[in-house]
Amino acid sequence: MELTFESKELSRGHRRIADYISKHMEELPFMVEEDLAAACQVSTSTVSRFWAEVGCKNLKEFKQKVKDEIFLSPSQKLQSAFSKMNEEDAAASLLIGVDYLQQTAERLSQESFERAASMLREAGTVYIYGPGSSASLAALIDFRLTRFGIRVSHLSRGGHELFDRLVHVQPQDVMLIFGFVTESPELAVLLDHAGSKGCKTLLITDLVISEMVEKATVTLYTARGQLWEFHSMVAPIALLETLIVKVGKQMEEHAVAVSEELHELRRKYQKLLPKRV
């Protein structure tokens, strides 16, 4: 079962149920089918048929699977990765990431991709929010965009420290947000504040149905594995690198000029600050 669901395979009524569950997962344990039907404005029979569409017998089984998948410990997720590893063939294990790349490519909208690159290129400042494991992604795109001469600012991972930088956000800026697994209070604040300031948001996520997706200006999906699995960063990194190349191509003349100036700067001071290998 996928808690992100597959909206293209669901009927209109079932998509409404899937969307509601994604937004109110914490309420699900206390709900019965009649509650869901009323909340989604569909019939109880539509709710009853929904469970089979997502691989369950009934609401009770669905609730149990939600519980099992969400509350698995990190050690259990790591064990999932171990079970997939081919001990006798490292190359075969490496190719597991190809499936995530394929899923990401299949869901990639060219229009959204082009718009995302244009947003980053034209931004006054790109504010980056990358909590947890996505901190590595935030560092990568910070390094690359700075090379192009794009102004970048990192947002704190959480709490009241977020406000210190948020107060400076302007309409011409862009928030690049990595939102994986679920929408945190910090993500909700960022998207809400960006909307109030008229600031565009680029969301990179592994969710198909989420309130974040609806709020963001542009969303790019990347596969990382199921909720109960050890999450891979193969596809997110590949997506970022592709996006970075697109940004560079859009500002090719300027990017080349900055690169040449960087080369001259290194050459001028190479005796004082030699390049470390």
From TrEMBL:
<keyword id="KW-0804">Transcription</keyword>
<feature type="domain" description="HTH rpiR-type">
    <location>
        <begin position="1"/>
        <end position="73"/>
    </location>
</feature>
<protein>
    <submittedName>
        <fullName>MurR/RpiR family transcriptional regulator</fullName>
    </submittedName>
</protein>
<dbReference type="InterPro" id="IPR035472">
    <property type="entry name" value="RpiR-like_SIS"/>
</dbReference>
<dbReference type="InterPro" id="IPR001347">
    <property type="entry name" value="SIS_dom"/>
</dbReference>
<dbReference type="Pfam" id="PF01380">
    <property type="entry name" value="SIS"/>
</dbReference>
<dbReference type="InterPro" id="IPR000281">
    <property type="entry name" value="HTH_RpiR"/>
</dbReference>
<dbReference type="InterPro" id="IPR009057">
    <property type="entry name" value="Homeodomain-like_sf"/>
</dbReference>
<dbReference type="InterPro" id="IPR046348">
    <property type="entry name" value="SIS_dom_sf"/>
</dbReference>
<keyword id="KW-0238">DNA-binding</keyword>
<dbReference type="Pfam" id="PF01418">
    <property type="entry name" value="HTH_6"/>
</dbReference>
<feature type="domain" description="SIS">
    <location>
        <begin position="116"/>
        <end position="253"/>
    </location>
</feature>
<dbReference type="InterPro" id="IPR036388">
    <property type="entry name" value="WH-like_DNA-bd_sf"/>
</dbReference>
<keyword id="KW-0805">Transcription regulation</keyword>
<dbReference type="InterPro" id="IPR047640">
    <property type="entry name" value="RpiR-like"/>
</dbReference>
